[in-house]
Design a protein that fits this description.
255 residues; alpha/beta; 6-stranded mixed beta sheet; 4-stranded antiparallel beta sheet; 9 helices; 24% strand
Length: 255
């Protein structure tokens, strides 16, 4: 809890500025997500939301402003630094290794090595343990894929997205999802949205970047509206209708 009795944000940004020459992509951008919530981030093309998300995930270093992770001031040096602090990001291109099995994909960058000299000296991976933990992890998230030895390239689009989201669920602090339902059909989009709920229900806050307004209104607790490089409003699906949110996003209606 913060001093004013409100929950301490899982991640907070204040006054972020990012310039690329004469172009200002972020102009005093603010953001906050509370523990255990799904925060949707929406904005028209060129609104600066991608730059905001890259700043929150360590891929962009802001020129000005400050960020706080669970109340502690933080400055990421890059995406790996953000990951070390418990933030996992799934970009629209998924960044999975199609030829590798599901279990290997889940543990990319966090491989488990054998105990003793086999792991420390010969750096042999503990394939059996990773397979067992993959099966348990996918079962906990209620993802119905039969074999963790199956290559990702053999999966449907929705299942591949499921693997990418499941990998992000190893996060300790926050999950960021960039357009997770893009190019998916209705059934597979529903599967991914259910998976996002499972991640949230495990206690992880989720930032959802999406142009899919029905999905945003179905799943988001709050909606961050971004325009002209900054936050213009934070609303909820209960406080505003979809046309109102779109109007605020485009500037046709005041926040």
């Amino acid at each position: 809890m913060s001093d004013n009795g409100k929950p301490t944000p899982a991640l907070e940004a204040r006054g972020l500025v990012k310039r690329y020459g004469h172009v200002t992509a972020m102009e005093g951008a603010d953001f906050e997500i509370l523990p255990g919530e799904i925060m949707a981030v929406i904005g028209d093309n060129g609104a600066g939301k991608s730059t905001l998300i890259k700043a929150l995930s360590g891929a962009v270093i802001p020129d000005e402003g400050e960020m706080f992770l669970e109340g502690n001031r933080i400055k990421f040096s890059g995406p790996l630094d953000a990951r070390r602090h418990g933030i996992e990001t799934v970009y629209q291109d998924l960044s999975v290794a199609p030829a590798l099995p599901i279990a290997d994909n889940l543990f990319l960058g966090r491989e488990i090595r054998m105990g003793g000299p086999l792991g420390s000296v010969f750096r042999i991976l503990d394939k059996r343990r990773m397979l067992a933990e993959s099966e348990e992890h996918m079962a906990n998230l209620k993802i119905g894929i039969r074999s963790m030895k199956q290559a990702v390239e053999t999966l449907s689009g929705g299942q591949r997205q499921g693997v990418a989201v499941a990998r992000s669920a190893f996060a300790r602090s926050l999950v960021i999802l960039d357009e997770p339902t893009a190019a998916l059909g209705v059934r597979e989009s529903g599967m991914v949205l259910n998976l996002i709920r499972e991640v949230r229900d495990r206690g992880l806050p989720v930032i959802l970047i999406s142009h899919n307004m029905p999905a945003v209104f179905e799943i988001a607790d709050r909606i961050h509206i971004h325009r002209l490089g900054r936050r213009v409003a934070v609303v909820t699906p209960k406080s505003h209708t979809m046309p109102e949110v779109v109007a605020i996003m485009t500037g046709a209606m005041a926040a």
